[in-house]
Design a protein that fits this description.
With 224 residues, the chain is α+β, with helices and mostly antiparallel strands. The chain contains eight helices and six strands. A hairpin with a 2-residue loop joins strand 3 and strand 4 (50-51). The longest helix is centred in the middle third of the chain and has 18 residues, at 127-144. The chain is globular. The two termini are 17 Å apart.
Length: 224
Amino acid sequence: MENEKIWEFLENEVIHRSNCLKTKTSATIVKNEKILSVGWNSCSPIVNEKKYKYDERLEVCPRMNVPSGTGYELCSPVHAEVRAVLNLRSINPIQNELKRFASHRLSYIFKTIKKELYKNSEKKLYEVEENIKIAKVLLDRYFKGIYLKHEYGEVYFEDERYKLNELKGSELYLIGHYWICATCETVLRSIGIEVFYLNKEIAEKVKERYIQNKLTGKEDNLKS
């Protein structure tokens, strides 16, 4: 599949599903020129005492003027890259599962689990490798349907962990932003996705807007 067709597909067919008012993004996982899944960013903020659900239409964005990569606790965003991974499962992620994979929650989990594992050990931490291991465990539980069972009780859900073993060599395409955060990269690498592409033209426009509005934050792995 030609890159131009992928960008066109993401821009015309997927990105509109995002409920983010600040910066809409969409992503797809591709292997052997075949689209395996798509994802879009979504958030679940509390605005004026109202709790919005993921993908629910928003009226106000609490992070509109917050620098990129910060303030995630204000809206619990699930990034398009991670959503694309979750959407590989045949059963769409439920609200509780999306909440578990929100960016700031994943970052907190990585730090908390590592601290617990090594609190009585002087073993040196290799942050990236350890986070990848933790991400594998979280995705293993997700594709096994553990969180679905917690929500609906002991109902049978097909174990789809085998899908995680078929992703090595896949590529991720992201449109709508100019960088991929470290947390998303960790999740992607945990399932064997090592190649990421950003749409250069749109990435430059978004970055210019962020610079003009003083919204630039930490930048990681800018690729196009």
